[in-house]
Specification:
Layout (H helix, E strand, L loop, with lengths): L3 H12 L4 H17 L5 H9 L4 H20 L26 H10 L3 H13 L3 H5 L6 E2 L4 E4 L8 E4 L2 H11 L12 H10 L5 H14 L4 H8 L5 H7 L3 H13 L1
Antiparallel strand pairs: 1-2, 2-3
Length: 257
């Protein structure tokens, strides 16, 4: 197989507005496959998938082949024509840690500096990823209209995320008279260590907690998806699966009232 097709696949994936990180991961797996089989057959691919003991890796390998096969079929390339037969390993869904309002209150109390308090407030108010927080600049905060501009996200697309009154106030105190520069002056690892020091959940747990809290308080799934930077409702469903019954009851009660 012509490996240059992998570059074309990656480019088309990004042009379609999909996550560049996902495309890069898929290409890495496909390159690994092609180092073992220049013209892989379905049997070769199944053996390659089965060769790793990790269920997660087996699933990712299958997803990479399927994604490339779908793209090849769409572009009329006679390769990986059997992609629909590639199995996807099933991962057992484990309960995921989700930050709660109690976690938020405890973290705010434990924070001893203006920076740490502002970090906690932004995590609870905005649902940002660690990498997104680390890249924020003072100029990305719009106090008058109450939002933060996320210029570089996982999908490669910029977006805005609302900034609650408490977070806005904490950021004003943290920024002080600064008019430019890094907002928190923290790396992703520094953020992780800060949360550990505060005895708080991980940044991703805050992201889940933010989504759950928003849905509980009547924010639409469409708005949650837009602010979080998710292209589909799959991530919303994944984060809030355990709350689906509770949210449904609340929605019906609102409709009756």
């Amino acid at each position: 197989m012509d490996k240059s097709l992998l570059g074309e696949f990656q480019l088309d994936w990004r042009l379609a507005g999909k996550s560049p990180a996902t495309a890069s991961t898929y290409v890495q797996w496909l390159e690994h496959l092609l180092t073992q089989h220049q013209e892989p057959t379905l049997v070769d691919v199944k053996q390659w998938i089965a060769s790793t003991p990790s269920v997660s890796f087996r699933r990712k390998r299958g997803q990479a082949v399927r994604a490339f096969g779908t793209w090849a079929e769409h572009n009329n390339y006679e390769i990986f024509t059997w992609w629909k037969l590639v199995p996807l390993a099933k991962e057992r869904q484990r309960p995921q840690t989700t930050a709660t309002e109690l976690d938020y209150k405890k973290a705010v109390c434990a924070a001893s500096t203006l920076r740490d308090k502002a970090l906690v407030e932004v995590l609870w108010s905005c649902g940002l990823r660690r990498s997104e927080i680390a890249r924020l600049d003072v100029l990305d905060v719009n106090f008058s209209e109450g939002f933060i501009v996320v210029r570089t996200s996982k999908t490669g697309k910029p977006r805005i995320t609302p900034l609650g009154p408490s977070a806005r106030n904490a950021l004003r105190k943290h920024i002080g008279k600064r008019s430019e520069g890094s907002l928190f002056e923290m790396s992703t690892n520094a953020i992780r260590l800060c949360l550990m020091r505060l005895g708080a959940p991980s940044a991703h747990a805050w992201r889940r907690g933010w989504a759950v809290h928003a849905l509980r308080n009547g924010v639409s799934e469409t708005s949650v998806r837009a602010v979080a930077g998710w292209s589909s409702g799959a991530m919303v469903a994944r984060y809030t699966r355990a709350l689906s019954g509770e949210l449904a009851v609340q929605e019906f009660q609102r409709s009756w009232s």
